[in-house]
Amino acid sequence: MVLEFIPALVLTPIIGLYELFLIHHDENFRGSHWIGHGLSTFVTILIGLLIVFNVPYFLELTNLASKSSWLANVWIVRSLIGLIILIRIHAQSAVVKTTIGSSKGLKETWFHSLIIVVLIVTAPLYWVLIEPLVKNIIPL
Q: Are the CB atoms for 107 and 26 separated by under 8 Å?
C-alpha cells in the first residue's frame, strides 16, 4: 500500500471552489473579504483529503486495526476525521461574530460546512469515477 497524493491534489481545487461559492453565499458583507476567508479553507480541504485517502495506509502501518475492533473499520476513522474537519471549517468561517440568533452573517451555515465535510469524507467513493477522466487529461 502506498500514500495517495494525486486524488487530494486533484479534488482540492474542485471542493475548494465549491466551498468558496458557499462562503460567498453565506457571508453577507460587501467587498472581497469572503475570498480571503474562502481561500484559507483550501489548506484544510487539502489536509482533510490527504488524511481521508491515506487512512488504510495509516491503519496498516500502525497496526491499530488489530488492537481495536472499531478502528478496523476505515469508515469509522474517516467519519471521526470528518467531525474534526467539520468543526475546523465552521470555526474557520466564523472568524468574525455575527448577530445573535442569525444563521447568516460572517460565517458559513452548519449545513454548508456539513456538505463540504461529506464531500471530503466520501471522496474515495467518487474518486474511482473521476480518476479515469483525470488520467485521460493528465498522464499519471
A: yes
Residue that wins the pLDDT comparison between 67 and 61: 61
Q: What is the pLDDT of residues 71-103, one digit of tens each?
A: 778 999 999 999 999 998 878 766 655 544 444
Residue 86, C-beta contacts closer than 8 angstroms, at least 6 positions apart: 113, 114, 117
Which residue is associated with the grid cell 495517495? 4
Single-letter code of the amino acid located at 123: A
33 alpha-carbon distance from chain centroid: 21
Confidence of residue 105 (pLDDT cuts 50, 70, 90): very low
Give me the residues paired with residue 27 across strands. 105
Alpha helices in the chain (DSSP H): 6-26, 33-53, 55-62, 64-67, 74-93, 110-121, 123-137
8-state DSSP, 31: S
